[in-house]
Amino acid sequence: MGAAVVTVHPGKRTAKRQPSAYDYRRFEDYIARLREAAEGTRVKVAIENMEPRVNTLLSTAEDAAEVLDREPWLWFTLDMGHAMMTSCDEVIRFIDLCIERMVNVHVSALGGNGRPHHPIHGDPDALRVLAELADRGYDGYLTLELEDMVFPGALSSEEKVVLLSQESEALREVFS
Predict the structure, then answer these.
(1) What is the per-residue pLDDT for 155?
(2) Rounded Cα–Cα distance for residues 118 and 97 (Å)
(3) Per CATH, which fold does 5-175 belong to?
C-alpha cells in the first residue's frame, strides 16, 4: 500500500484491574509478533500511548520509553489527547523521553468533559504541546484525531470543512 508508518495499539484489556504477569507476557508475545512482521519491510511500526486507565498498557511516558529502549526497531506515536488525560506536563514528559523515536502524533485537545479528541484551535494546552514539538524540530506525521460526537449536534459537511480548516491553520501557525 506504500505506507511509511503503521501505528498499533498496545492493546486494551477487558479486565478492570492492574495488569498481571500474564498480561505482560501476552504483551511481550504481541511485540515479538510485530517484530517478526516488521522485519524486512520499510514500514515503521509505531506503538501508541493509551489513555491512563487501569486496563491499559503504555499510558505513561516511562512505560513507553522502557519498551522503546528494549525494542530498537520500534517507533512511537504520541497520542496527545490520551496523555493530556493525565496532564499537559505528562505530554511534555512523553516528548522528553520519546521524541527521538516519534514518527507520528495524533493531534487533539482535551475537552471540558475530560475526554480527548477535541479540536486544538484555541486550546492553550494543545497549542503548548505542538509548540514544544515544533521547537524541538519534530518533522514527522501529524494526524488530526477528532471525534464528531463531542459536538452538541451533528455537523454539516460545510461545518466539518470549516473545522478542518481551523485545525489546519492552527497547525500551520505552530509549525511554520
Answers:
(1) 94
(2) 25
(3) TIM Barrel (3.20.20)
What mean pLDDT is predicted for residues 38-59? 90
Measured distance CA(133)–CA(148) in Å, rounded:
26
CB 117 within 8 A of CB 108: yes
Q: How far is Cα 160 from Cα 140, in angstroms, rounded to an integer?
A: 25
Over residues 76-83, the mean pLDDT reads: 97
Residue found by looking up cell 496532564 in the block: 87
* Residue 88, pLDDT above cutoff 70: yes
Task: Please list, in sequence order, all residues whose beta carbon lies within 8 angstroms of the beta carbon of residue 139, skipping any fewer than 6 positions away.
Answer: none
Cell (9 digits) for 87: 496532564
Domain extents for the chain? 5-175
Decide: helix, strand or coil at residue 65: helix
CB-based contacts of 120: which residues, under 8 Å, 6+ apart? Answer: 107, 108, 109, 126, 127, 130, 167, 170, 171
